[in-house]
């Protein structure tokens, strides 16, 4: 939360940068400054509020994923211990949302620990909802005999992807059960998402070269025959992005090796006017201030051919905003306003980045589309107040 003084000063500043298109991500991050916040303001929300401030949930929250179904928005995010779904008619206030425990893993399974980055997707042909998420057989403590085989310390080496299936077509009333582990060739896999193109389904997730390379964490794609079955053999798994740019390294422009260099949190985003298809992903390191969003565009017809992908090497498309004390922004999802006239990005960011992962909170802002390039135009991340989504509360 922000001190009142900063809140007031930045209100006018934010309105002039909101919507500004920038093609270049963070230059060398500005020098580390101590956080100046100490006094907390308590935002007041109600369904007829015309403005809101970030964060939109007043608790630690990371890896948000939002979907709209019927009259409600639903959000799920990393809780570590379970898969949780929140329901609210208000995209910009989750503090009084209804809470549903979707899945609580039993003890002693391959998915008991470190439940990360859940997403929930509806598949019309099955008339069911599928949660796709990351989990681990151990609480990020592989045995020393396993760890010693990795290039670097590898706490997350046993993370794999899993799919839960709903009992029916109602996202909220359904019960959810474990459907399958997704085949990631018995290698590290986190932050997986579904990617759909030309009636085919794919799995895009954060991967390593082998089961023990540890870094870099890259983006891999494989084909799926249904929401719980990967059909590509390992030989056809394709790496579509590596953290090979200075802004994808931690610290910025690290050159000595690939430690902490990450591409993760991929999400499909399709321009509704042009049908251009993008993967928006998170780059650099999630417990760091220079965590940001990168962009890859599908420019060919076959997502399993590297020539079909064009990565924006100019820099992050969404990145820290020290002027408003917003750092380490990433792991976004995308949704429309209630009247479907606007597009919104829901992401996590940090105020006190020195606290790392535990500083992350969930935030939301409107974004637009560039009429020339067809690319998403993300705002600078900020606190607001901003206008609520169009149609909200009406
Ligand atoms: C899910 O796990 C979180 C983290 O341990 C916990 O705070 C929360 O109460 C759990 N949710 C439910 C509904 O049990
Ligand atoms: C965990 O599962 C293994 C294999 O199924 C079994 O041998 C072991 O006793 C189980 N441990 C606990 C604590 O349930
Ligand atoms: C990687 O796979 C090999 C071959 O299956 C296995 O011997 C090794 O223990 C694995 N390494 C890790 C770190 O899991
Ligand atoms: C990255 O570091 C290298 C080696 O120190 C330096 O030559 C290069 O100019 C740096 N690049 C950027 C973009 O800072
Ligand atoms: C986008 O795709 C939809 C569905 O296939 C199609 O109806 C529409 O004409 C396409 N729009 C453009 C601009 O290509």
Automatic annotation (TrEMBL):
Signal peptide stretch = 1-19
Specify the domain of life of the species encoding this protein.
Answer: Eukaryota
User: Does this entry carry the keyword Hydrolase?
Assistant: yes
What start-end ranges are recorded for coiled-coil regions in this protein? Answer: none
Q: Which GO terms describe its biological process?
A: carbohydrate metabolic process
InterPro entries assigned: Glyco_hydro_43, Glyco_hydro_beta-prop_sf
Alphabetically ordered keywords of this record: Glycosidase, Hydrolase, Signal
Q: Name one GO molecular function term.
A: hydrolase activity, hydrolyzing O-glycosyl compounds
The family this protein is said to belong to: Belongs to the glycosyl hydrolase 43 family.
Fetch the PANTHER family from UniProt.
GLYCOSYL HYDROLASE, HYDROLASE, FAMILY 43, PUTATIVE (AFU_ORTHOLOGUE AFUA_3G01660)-RELATED
* The name this protein goes by in its record: Glycoside hydrolase family 43 protein
Which species does the entry assign this protein to?
Knufia fluminis
């Amino acid at each position: 939360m922000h001190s009142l003084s900063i809140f007031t000063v930045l209100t006018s500043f934010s309105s002039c940068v909101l919507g500004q298109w920038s093609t270049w991500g963070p230059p060398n991050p500005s020098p580390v400054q101590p956080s100046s916040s100490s006094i907390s303001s308590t935002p007041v929300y109600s369904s007829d509020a015309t403005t809101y401030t970030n964060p939109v949930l007043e608790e630690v929250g990371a890896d948000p994923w939002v979907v709209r179904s019927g009259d409600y928005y639903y959000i799920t995010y990393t809780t570590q211990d379970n898969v949780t779904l929140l329901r609210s008619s208000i995209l910009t206030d989750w503090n009084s949302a209804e809470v549903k425990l979707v899945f609580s893993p039993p003890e002693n399974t391959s998915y008991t620990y470190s439940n990360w980055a859940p997403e929930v997707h509806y598949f019309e042909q099955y008339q069911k909802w599928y949660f796709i998420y990351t989990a681990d057989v151990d609480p990020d403590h592989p045995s020393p005999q396993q760890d010693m085989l990795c290039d670097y310390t590898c706490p997350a080496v046993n993370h794999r992807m899993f799919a839960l299936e709903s009992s029916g077509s109602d996202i909220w009333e359904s019960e959810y059960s474990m459907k399958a582990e997704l085949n990631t060739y018995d290698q590290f896999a986190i932050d997986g998402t579904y990617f759909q193109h030309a009636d085919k389904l794919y799995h895009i997730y954060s991967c390593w070269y082998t089961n023990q390379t540890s870094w870099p964490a890259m983006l891999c794609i494989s084909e799926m025959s249904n929401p719980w079955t990967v059909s590509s053999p390992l030989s056809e798994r394709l790496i579509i992005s590596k953290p090979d740019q200075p802004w994808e390294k931690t610290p910025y422009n690290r050159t000595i090796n690939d430690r902490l260099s990450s591409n993760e949190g991929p999400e499909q985003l399709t321009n509704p006017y042009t049908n251009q298809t993008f993967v928006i992903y998170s780059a650099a390191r999630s417990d760091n201030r220079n965590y940001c969003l990168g962009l890859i565009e599908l420019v060919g017809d076959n997502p399993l051919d590297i020539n079909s992908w064009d990565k924006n090497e100019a820099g992050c498309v969404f990145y820290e905003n020290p002027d408003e004390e917003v750092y380490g922004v990433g792991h976004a999802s995308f949704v429309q306003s209630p009247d479907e006239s606007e597009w919104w990005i829901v992401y996590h960011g940090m105020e006190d980045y020195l606290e790392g992962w535990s500083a992350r909170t969930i935030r939301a802002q409107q974004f637009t589309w560039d009429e020339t390039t067809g690319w998403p135009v993300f705002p600078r991340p900020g606190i607001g107040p901003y206008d609520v989504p169009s149609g909200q509360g009406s």
